[in-house]
Specification:
about 325 residues, 7-stranded parallel sheet, Rossmann fold, two-stranded parallel ribbon, alpha/beta, 13 helices, globular
Length: about 325
């Protein structure tokens, strides 16, 4: 397919899938990049003929250059297993070194709040120091530094978006996903405590929409941007809304830091969560004043609407599986 404007690196993740949906709504062709062509075809066949498939190992520079060939804008949303965060800067370095010579004009990187470390003020703007103590935060900061250093006003421009945790139909790795699963299946949700500290969440389609809007603004490049959630919400309040949407009372099993340490002896994922537990005791609450100035039409789906849409999508996908 000729004249592909967009490539989605890490397409099979939740944000990659949402980006594909948003681009397809526009009638825009795009390339999806991931390790498995079989999975790419399974996840994105609904968007044919707008979609072009590219199976590529993004740890290989030749493969990454092939995935970037002929593309104007790359959305980089590549994820790695939680115990392998050292892969983040390694993969990003390969991608940047491969894509700039390929003639890519825009590189839009999806980051996280991890590089800020423990917040030093109630609301964190982009001027807040990036001083992460946790290993995962240091890896994400190193990744961001590579992206920002690659910004070239005469070549490939780069920008970064930092959202909080997100939720939505394809967000299997969101820490509130267990709440949706439990509510829909009549079970008890395993959640991390404390559950009465204020957090914020982004609805995944909103993140995708923001990434696209950011990519289209010349002023966006050469720096990072925060995007806050739709408002502050505790885990308990979020669970009450999710369970309430299916006419159930919330059932929660709460694990604090000590419990995570104990369970982590047997569960590598939970063991890796221990160093990030500060996000539950002193959450990073984002100030996105700058982004709202840049994107006056920035959309944030209210929690009630996003939760309802997530439940409906999960129900509709469960029906074919059950059949």
């Amino acid at each position: 397919m000729a004249n592909i404007k967009y490539a989605l690196f890490g397409a099979t993740g939740s944000v990659g899938k949402a980006l594909a949906a948003k681009l397809a709504e526009r009638g825009q062709s795009f390339r999806v990049v991931g390790r498995s062509e079989e999975r790419l075809r399974r996840d994105f066949r609904a968007y044919e003929p707008l979609v072009e498939y590219c199976a590529a190992d993004l740890s290989d520079r030749v493969a990454a250059a092939r995935a970037a060939a002929g593309v104007d804008t790359i959305f980089y949303t590549v994820g790695v297993p939680y115990p392998q965060f050292e892969q983040h800067p390694k993969l990003t370095r390969v991608a940047l070194e491969a894509t700039a010579p390929a003639g890519v004009r825009h590189f839009v990187h999806l980051s996280t709040v991890y590089p800020y470390g423990v917040p030093q003020q109630e609301f964190v703007s982009e001027s807040h120091p990036r001083n992460p103590q946790a290993f995962k935060g240091r890896m994400r900061k190193e990744q961001e530094d590579l992206v920002l250093a690659a910004n070239n006003p005469k070549g490939m421009r780069t920008t970064i978006l930092r959202p909080p945790d997100f939720y939505g139909p394809d967000s299997e790795l969101s820490y509130v996903r267990a709440i949706f699963d439990a509510a829909l299946n009549g079970g008890t949700a395993n959640v991390i405590g404390p559950i009465d500290t204020p957090h914020e969440f982004n609805f995944v389609p909103d993140v995708a929409e923001t990434l696209i809007a950011l990519s289209e603004k010349a002023e966006a490049y050469g720096r990072a941007w925060n995007v806050a959630g739709a408002g502050l919400m505790t885990t308990r309040q979020f669970a009450e809304q999710v369970f309430g949407a299916v006419h159930q009372k919330p059932r929660l099993r709460v694990a604090g830091k000590v419990t995570l340490r104990v369970l982590g002896v047997f569960n590598p994922f939970l063991r890796e969560l221990v160093e990030m537990h500060y996000l539950w005791t002193t959450p990073v609450k984002l100030d996105d004043t700058g982004l709202r100035r840049l994107l006056p039409n920035l959309h944030k789906t209210p929690y009630t609407d996003g939760i309802h849409a997530t439940i409906e999508a999960m129900r509709s996908r469960a029906l074919p599986a059950a059949a």
